[in-house]
Amino acid sequence: MTTPRHLIAAITLLIVSALTGGAAGVKTVRGEFTYLGDRNETREQCRAQALQGARVQALAKEFGMLVSDDTFQHETMTDREQSTYYSSLSLTSVKGEWIADVGEPKFEYSLDNEGCYVVKCTVTGTAREISNEAAQFEVLALRNGTTTRHSDTRFRSGDDMYLYFRAPSDGYIACFLADDRTNVYALLPYQDASRGEVKVKRGKEYVFFDPAKADRDHGPVDEIMLSTESVERNSLYVVFSPNPFSLTADSRSSDGAPRSLSSEAFAKWLSKSRRNDTKMGVKIINLEITKE
Question: Which of 34, 139, 169, 288 is deepest in the core (most CB within 10 A)?
């Protein structure tokens, strides 16, 4: 990553809630999923995707799904049956949330005729139905432009990324980006913001990461450029609540990269925050970055 433009490359990360078991409505669920990788994916990346797919499949089977066009704007499709199924699940909002694993997930590894990893995951866990009280809001990833017509989830290395946001009520927003190396980067609030919160107004259209459209109350703007040497996938997590919330502790890198924290710390913070605030909403935008 370079200063002042942050070069970010990451892979989809499933945020697993770490709530306390035994609560009302908690059920034991089981899912199984086979992920078929491609030549650009490592064994660990395929393992993470298989685990995510198994958890999503378990939640979908128990609680069902709601179509949500604005959560996953696009998902890369393949001609392989299981990967296509995974993509179709990603285009939905599962009406359940994962609480914790019961035992260790089980993995089976093999290679296909092209030398790509095939990973089967079986997982058992506790989960509960998601409350429908969460605030609904509009959010879009924007590529090389700051209007909604620039909405996209496919980026090329060197593209600028902006974030469009509009809230249904006064409230607070935070934004994080997760990678496959157990790191989560805090993008909002901005790095040099004097306040530890980003307050937004009802119905106002915001474009973050653009100095020309900056709100002075949000502090000095960070600009973001996505970069990769191959094919990468990012998960952008946008959190909004009408109620103020405290952010988890993070650390700043000396090379000008965004503040970061471990995926475990982020998962614990997010699950605790959602448990304490039923109106907190979370939307995930999957981004794909290619070299050319």
Answer: 139
Place of tokens 């009406």: 95
Q: 155: closest CA among 10, 46, 2, 282?
A: 10
pLDDT at 218 over 60: yes
pTM equals 0.65
Q: What are phi and psi of 15, to 5 degrees?
A: -85, 115
Q: How far apart are CA 160 and CA 177, in angstroms?
A: 15
Question: What pLDDT is stored for residue 207 in this prediction?
Answer: 97
pLDDT in tens, 39-56: 888 888 888 888 888 988
DSSP-assigned beta bridge partners for residue 124? 30
Distance CA 148, CA 164 (A): 7
Q: Are 29 and 61 in contact (CB under 8 A)?
A: yes
CA angle 86, 48, 136 (to 5 degrees): 60
Say if residues 169 and 135 touch (Cβ distance below 8 Å). Answer: yes
Q: Is 249 exposed, middle or buried (0-12, 13-18, 19+ CB in 10 A)?
A: exposed
- The first and second tokens of residue 269, run together, are 């913070």
